[in-house]
Amino acid sequence: MRRRAERQRETRERIVRATVALHEEIGPRATTIQAIADRAGVERLTVYRHFPDEVTLFAACSGHFMADHPPPDPETWSQIEDPVERARRALAAFYAYYRTVERMFASVLRDAETLPAMKAITDRFEELLDSIRDDLASGFRLRGGRRKRLAAALGHGLRFRTWQSLAAEGLSDSESARMIGECARSLASR
């Protein structure tokens, strides 16, 4: 019994690793169950036995990927007193993170638009970013419209696609983080 359970765990892990690799290489939308089975060295039916639907498969893949690539820890900037420096440090941490996960995030975000099960997963990451945005904005101690505009700028700055756009313009991660930090400073001082 124990050996059988171990084999099942190993098979499940191979399926998850195969799916993660395919999602990164070609995207979730183009990944077929047959391709997963071939990559994992199992039959299609085995994939379905372990993951009866997209929701369970995507959740397992997301959990695996995020365990290997955890997002930046807010503790690394939360103790910084100056709100601009705190925001800059958070942005720099996320931009460095995005550089390491760029291929996967680009594929997943592109395909999430048409895959509801994947959209649910990307929405959870967006909720994390919204929480960090709100925490960063609170350090500026603004209210009303000024706080709303500042939060919008910080939220925009924290997004993967913003980083991707700034990187495509030739800005380094630190230049991008400084630029968004200066935008925050400007919005806060008006």
Would you kindly provide a brief summary of this structure?
The chain has helices at residues 2-26, 33-40, 44-50, 54-68, 83-112, 116-138, 144-158, 160-168, 173-189. By secondary structure, it is an all-alpha fold.
Task: Break the fold down into its secondary structure elements and pairings.
Blueprint: H1 2-26, H2 33-40, H3 44-50, H4 54-68, H5 83-112, H6 116-138, H7 144-158, H8 160-168, H9 173-189
Helix pairs in contact: 1-2, 1-4, 1-5, 2-3, 5-6, 5-8, 5-9, 6-7, 7-9
Number of strands: 0
SSE string, helix = H, strand = E? HHHHHHHHH
Percent of sequence in beta strands:
under 5%
**Structural category:** mainly alpha
Stretches with pLDDT under 50, minimum 5 residues: none
Helical element count? 9
Radius of gyration: 20 Å
For the biggest sheet, the summary is:
none
Integer tally of domains: 2
Write structural notes for this entry.
The chain has two domains: 57 residues, Orthogonal Bundle (Arc Repressor Mutant, subunit A); 116 residues, no CATH class. Helices cover 78% and strands 0% of the residues. The radius of gyration is 20 Å and the shape is elongated. The N and C termini lie far apart (68 Å). 31% of the residues are buried.
